[in-house]
TrEMBL record:
Catalytic activity annotation: alpha,alpha-trehalose + H2O = alpha-D-glucose + beta-D-glucose
Keyword Lipoprotein: no
GO molecular function: alpha,alpha-trehalase activity
Biological process according to GO: trehalose catabolic process
Ranges in a coiled coil: none
Superkingdom of this protein's organism: Eukaryota
UniProt-listed SUPFAM superfamilies: Six-hairpin glycosidases (SSF48208)
UniProt enzyme class: hydrolase
Family, per entry: Belongs to the glycosyl hydrolase 37 family.
The EC number(s) this enzyme carries: 3.2.1.28
Organism: Drosophila guanche
Keyword terms, alphabetized: Glycoprotein, Glycosidase, Hydrolase, Signal
Protein name: Trehalase
A family per Pfam: Trehalase
Length: 579
């Protein structure tokens, strides 16, 4: 494949790195805090070519003794940049259907209506790049892709890598196979051009990826369409992405080659520049600041930006703040599980192609990863997998939803299923994970960061619930279904209250949305919609029967009789007592 091989050259995507990725212009404008949300500036389009913009900026700096006022900078931005988002047009997916068949699986009329509304939201989240992006990419921070995309929503107006896994599954359940395939083909074209898939569809994400789920997307597409040829044709790209991750993220731990999240760029996150410079004030030297920036961006690569999951303080615990980020020194359960899954799926696709040698090669890679996951990450005492702290050479015995990720991808010996099921269920019991009315929180630690307590996120809820279902033991299956139904009901309550699907929810409050972190809670929202559509499709009949301890049927009949206000009170009580 003629792809560039590593992230070191990727600041050349679109040829405008000095505007959007690093340099004096970016620093000066972002530090002036011209916009409430730092992401706004780096999403704006250039009016002049990058070279001319840089030249004129230099003239401005010289003329102002290198200390331009806020007003000077505001004028410069107004003169040289167009508002954000002008490169994207609203796009109604051409394969969108008013009544996809998943709706037939839902018996309850209110839930069916909700399913219909979620299906409508795909039209709000569809985006197509205008032709000028392809002609003049250097004027934009958006990474050109051939096909339209479904975005997460809110401030996230471009594609995001791992979000797209759940979006694509939702699209497939909504019978929008063309849109789903188009998004997968976009990612494949990005791997061919850039060598890996950046965190999101902007050049400023040039040094980091996100949890590697492209191969999982292809698997989902093939499961829905039986189009084996699609997987076979994708193999070269999928192998390339797998090798990219392994080659650029490897660490040696206890004699095993495992992976960590690791960014390869320099400087603060362009889209949160000022925020990063401020937290870096806690560090004295340029080297220590640069290390801090790396930890922040590596945490962003994990998708969990930010969380106590990545804190290691001087005592070796997770108590701390962003200054304690040590992402690169923590071997994560999810990343290694995903890599195992990628290797297994690549082997499976090679088997479909009849290529036994390649199948064996990737089976071996999977087994090597599995051995590492077992030896380093499985913790017999805890009865679960735990992230591993390489600084203090010890497991991190803190609940994070990703501790259960191996269940999702079956990264364990299947002959151990009964034992693992019993251990994991008692781990769940010990951590009281079934006591939260709004879903399983991402962690049990309250830091104010958005990937900490009490926030609960659709993708992690999905991994936990589907992971338990995979175990296929009666107790695990029962809990899986109970949590899936609870999640659907809680999201429904949030939706009936405010007519929004949220980016994150609140484990402590049935129907409550999440908060915290460096930006306000966003609505839309791609992955939340995808997970609900899948579970409405899978559990739509049980939901109307009120199984799993209280049903949406109860909520529905009350809606028609006593109205929304009373339902709010009843559902809140029900959330605590029944669900
Ligand atoms: O601008 C701050 C951060 O925003 C993104 O992260 C969050 O939203 C993403 C899109 O839904 C999601 O993939 C991620 O898990 C969220 O934490 C962005 O991905 C970060 O890189 C960025 O720093």
């Amino acid at each position: 494949m003629a792809a560039q091989t590593g992230p070191t050259t990727n600041h050349k995507i679109n040829g405008n790195g000095q505007i959007y990725c690093y340099g004096e212009l970016l620093k000066t404008i972002q530090m002036a805090k011209l916009f409430e949300d730092s992401k706004t500036f780096v999403d704006m389009k250039l009016k002049q070519a990058p070279a001319k913009t840089l030249e004129d900026f230099e003239l401005l700096m010289e003329s102002k003794n290198r200390t331009p006022s806020r007003e000077d900078l505001q004028k410069f931005v107004d003169d040289y940049f167009s508002p954000k988002g002008t490169e994207l047009e609203l796009w109604t997916p051409t394969d969108w259907k008013a009544n996809p068949s998943f709706l037939d699986q839902i018996t309850d009329p209110d839930l069916k209506q909700w399913g219909q509304e979620l299906n409508n939201i795909w039209k709000d989240l569809g985006r197509k790049m205008n032709d000028d992006v392809l002609k003049n990419p250097e004027y934009y921070s958006i990474i050109p892709v051939p096909n339209p995309v479904i975005i997460p929503g809110g401030r996230f107006i471009e594609f995001y890598y791992w979000d797209s896994y759940w979006i694509i599954r939702g699209l497939l359940h909504s019978e929008m196979q063309d849109t789903a395939r188009g998004m997968i083909e976009n990612f494949m074209s990005i791997v061919q051009r850039i060598g890996f898939i950046p965190n999101g569809g902007r050049v400023y994400y040039w040094g980091r990826s996100q949890p590697p789920l492209l191969t999982g997307m292809v698997k989902s597409y093939v499961d829905f369409t039986n189009d084996d040829l699609f997987a076979i044709n994708a193999l070269e790209v999928l192998e390339h992405e797998f090798e990219y991750f392994v080659n650029n993220h490897s660490v040696q731990v206890k004699g095993h080659n495992l992976a960590v999240y690791r960014d390869s760029s320099t400087g603060p996150r362009p889209e949160s520049y000022r925020e990063d410079v401020e937290t870096a004030e806690n560090f004295d030297t340029p080297e220590a600041k640069e290390d801090h920036y790396s930890e922040l961006k590596s945490a962003a690569e994990s998708g969990m930006d930010f969380s106590s999951r990545w804190f290691i303080n001087e005592n070796g615990t997770n108590v701390g703040n962003l200054s304690n980020l040590r992402t690169r020194s923590i071997v994560p359960v999810d990343l290694n599980s995903f890599l195992y899954w990628n290797a297994k799926l690549i082997a499976e696709f090679h088997a479909k192609a009849g290529n036994v040698d390649k199948m064996t090669e990737y089976e071996k890679k999977a087994q090597t990863l599995l051995q590492g996951i077992q030896d380093v990450l499985w913790n017999e005492e805890a009865g679960c997998w735990l992230d591993y702290d390489m600084i203090n050479e010890k497991p991190r015995d803190y609940f994070v939803s990703t501790n259960l990720a191996p269940l999702f991808v079956k990264a364990y010996n299947i002959s151990d299923t009964e034992k693992i099921s019993a251990s994991v269920l008692s781990y769940i019991e010990k951590n009281k994970l079934d006591t939260f009315p709004g879903g399983v929180p991402n962690t049990l630690y309250h830091t104010g960061e958005q990937w900490d307590f009490p926030n609960v996120w659709a993708p992690m809820q999905y991994i936990v619930v589907e992971g338990l279902a995979n175990l296929n033991t009666p107790a695990a299956k029962e809990l899986s279904k109970k949590w899936a139904l609870r999640w659907v009901k809680s999201n429904f309550k949030a939706y009936t209250d405010n007519f929004h699907m949220y980016e994150k929810y609140n484990a402590e409050e049935f129907g409550g949305h999440g908060g915290g972190g460096e930006y306000g809670v966003q609505t839309g929202f791609g992955w939340s919609n995808g997970v609900i559509i899948e579970w409405l499709s899978k559990h739509g009949r049980e939901l109307s029967e009120g199984s799993g301890g209280g049903g949406a049927g109860t909520t529905k009949s009350l809606i028609s009789v006593v109205g929304v206000a009373a339902v709010t009170i009843v559902a809140l009580i029900a959330g605590r007592v029944l669900w």
